[in-house]
Design a protein that fits this description.
single chain, 45% helix, elongated, DUF7977, membrane, transmembrane, transmembrane helix
Length: 105
Amino acid sequence: MTSSDDGGYVHDPSAFDDDGERREEADGPADDDWTDRPVHPADADREFDRRGWILVAVIVFAFVVSPLAIVLWPPDVSYLFALLILPLVPAVLLAVTAVWATTRP
């Protein structure tokens, strides 16, 4: 017994042509077309461009500037701010920048 909302795989013979290849759907190519012609890593666009240099600047900020700011912060500022909030900003900035720099549009 098969229902249309079972969420599992349902074989549809009309989705394949006579050679056994999946037909392209109306909204674009089939999901597994990328396996037919994969891009070699050497041919991919992997240059160290503006995104890489921004990531390097954020790393320097997170590992050099921020710890110096924590050490040199005036002692009259609260302990909570100096040791919890101040390190949180470069950590979040580094995480967001790393994800942004490594994803390609």
